[in-house]
Amino acid sequence: MQSGGQKKEKDLLSAQIAIELAVSDEEVGAFWDIENYPTSRWPSFSLSELSCHETGLCYMDESTLTRLQALRNKLGRPVYLSSAYRSPRHTVEKIKSSLGVHSLGRAVDVGCAGTQAYEVVAAALATGWTGIGISQRGASRFVHLDDLQPDEGRFTRPSLWSY
């Protein structure tokens, strides 16, 4: 028996995947593309940095983008995104048993280390991010942020974890 949140997540993923798979690989974006991306709403982030690094498509959620802009405004400095939207066809998503929140357009990874990572986490808590994952080992240091709500499926929210 599925909970309401699990059904909602499954329906959203099914619809998103169906739409994306219908889009040709030559198109840049489908939900957001160069013609309809409203740079005035999210002036700190370009379409290219939000799009999937492997397919070029971008299905970022509007509320997530608004929260991301609020994070940037709170920090008062540029935010480097090492990952944002990931297509279900992305190498990382293909190896998972089920798609992650990046493929829902509801997550970003902010490249940062040390004091900057601490500042990102503090600003994320202040701006309503509910999923915060911290990776501060090795060369790839980042803070994962997502804004799923407690009733949205298999992920417990709010939650903080380390990689």
Provide a descriptive summary of the structure in words.
This protein has one domain: 2-Layer Sandwich (Muramoyl-pentapeptide Carboxypeptidase, domain 2). The N and C termini lie far apart (31 Å). The protein is globular and about 35 Å long. About 7% of the residues have low confidence. It is built from 5 helices and 5 strands. The protein is α+β, with helices and mostly antiparallel strands and 163 residues long.
- For the record, the CATH architecture stands as 2-Layer Sandwich
Helix content: 25-40%
Strand order of the largest sheet: 1-2-4-3-5
Give me the Rg, rounded: 15 Å
Sequence stretches where pLDDT stays below 50 over 5 or more residues: 19-30
Query: SSE order, as H and E?
Result: HHHEHEHEEE
> How confident is the prediction overall: mean pLDDT?
85
Number of domains: 1
Q: Report strand %.
A: 5-15%
> First CA to last CA: what distance?
31 Å
**Mind describing the biggest β-sheet?**
5 strands, mixed
Q: Give the tally of β-strands.
A: 5
Q: What CATH first level would be assigned?
A: Alpha Beta
What class do helices, strands and sheet pairing give?
Answer: alpha+beta
- Shape summary: globular
CATH-derived topology = Muramoyl-pentapeptide Carboxypeptidase, domain 2
Total helices: the number is 5
Describe the structure concisely.
The chain is of the alpha+beta class and 163 residues long. The protein has one domain: Muramoyl-pentapeptide Carboxypeptidase, domain 2 (2-Layer Sandwich).
Task: Provide key terms for this protein.
163 residues; alpha+beta; Muramoyl-pentapeptide Carboxypeptidase, domain 2; five-stranded mixed β-sheet; 5 helices
